[in-house]
């Protein structure tokens, strides 16, 4: 599996440099998402712009990442979906579950807004689980 990671203080950008997100790479991708989270990455922006095809195994890996990052108040953001992948997400009715934005930059902005909201809530004594 080919990918690159750009780690910053508040987020990491994971670019999947594969044309297909299917059963041949989905298990390794799930493992990578979980490992990054265990290493302290709280917010992940996944750049899917190189991906031209995705199947149900690929969607499953995205859902695992979404659950892993959001259960502790972090964010998982998908960016750069092509038409095929966007249609699959829509048909699967996952657009209301996943955070999907057109560009990596918009994904990063959304992560920063979420971090600010979490900081404000924690200052006011609210738990991050209430998000």
Any idea what the radius of gyration is? 14 Å
If helices are DSSP runs of H or I spanning 4 or more residues, what is the number of helices? 4
Give the strand content.
15-25%
What order do the strands of the largest sheet run in, or round the barrel if closed? 1-2-4-6-7
Order of helices and strands: EEEHEEHEHEH
Our measurement of the CA-to-CA distance between the termini, rounded to an integer number of angstroms, reads 34 Å
Lay out the secondary structure:
Blueprint (H helix, E strand, L loop, with lengths): L2 E5 L4 E5 L3 E2 L4 H13 L4 E5 L5 E2 L1 H15 L4 E5 L3 H9 L7 E3 L2 H20 L8
Parallel strand pairs: 2-4, 3-5, 4-6, 6-7
Antiparallel strand pairs: 1-2
Description of the molecule:
This protein has 131 residues and is α/β, with parallel strands linked by helices. It has one domain (3-123): STAS domain (Transcription Regulator spoIIAA), CATH 3.30.750. It has helices spanning 26-38, 56-70, 83-91, 104-123; strands spanning 3-7, 12-16, 20-21, 43-47, 53-54, 75-79, 99-101. The strands form two sheets. The chain has a five-stranded mixed β-sheet. Strands 3-5 form a two-stranded parallel ribbon. Helix 3 (83-91) links the parallel strand 6 (75-79) and strand 7 (99-101). The model has no long low-confidence stretch (mean pLDDT 92).
TL;DR of this structure?
The protein has four helices and seven strands; from the N terminus they run βββαββαβαβα.
């Amino acid at each position: 599996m080919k990918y690159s990671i750009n780690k910053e203080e508040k987020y990491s950008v994971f670019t999947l440099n594969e044309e297909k997100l299917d059963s041949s790479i989905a298990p390794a991708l799930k493992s990578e998402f979980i490992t990054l989270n265990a290493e302290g990455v709280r917010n992940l922006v996944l750049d899917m712009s190189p991906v031209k095809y995705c199947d149900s195994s690929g969607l499953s890996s995205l859902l695992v990442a979404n659950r892993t990052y959001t259960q502790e108040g972090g964010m998982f953001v998908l960016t750069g979906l092509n038409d095929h992948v966007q249609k699959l997400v829509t048909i699967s009715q996952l657009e209301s579950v996943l955070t999907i934005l057109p560009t990596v930059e918009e994904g990063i902005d959304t992560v920063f807004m979420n971090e600010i909201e979490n900081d404000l809530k924690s200052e006011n004594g609210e738990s991050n689980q209430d998000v």
